[in-house]
Amino acid sequence: MKHTIEIPNLESLPEAAHRFVGLMDDYTVFAFRGEMGAGKTTFISALVRALGVEEDLASSPSFSLINEYRSDTTAELIYHFDLYRLESLEEALDIGVEDYLDCGAVCLIEWPDRIDDILPADTVEVEIAEAPDGSRTLTLTTPDNL
User: Structural domains in the chain?
Assistant: First the structure.
């Protein structure tokens, strides 16, 4: 099933993130796809805040590959992956990405194409596209067979 969230400007990010939370259901793995600069990290930062993480803790894991957050409201773990710098699937396996994907915590993955072969069947695909006016459109595609 497809859901679309329009983000006309930065000021509307918190509202868009709350709408996203309402669509998460019982899914835990979210693959964020989009061009460089499309706003994946910016949206994920707003999303983890909507999930109850302190505002100043949400940042890009570009150099660490994985950031771990704990929601202040639910105490649940949230993992934010930025896999842009990975050279191979083997590198992802070496750092234990499969264990994270299977642990039941929310996993928000930037550049998931690096690990497409090991993404769970119930991964939610999230496409972020930027329009010429700077607005963004998020398209969530949930697995039909689950």
Answer: 2-141 (3.40.50.300)
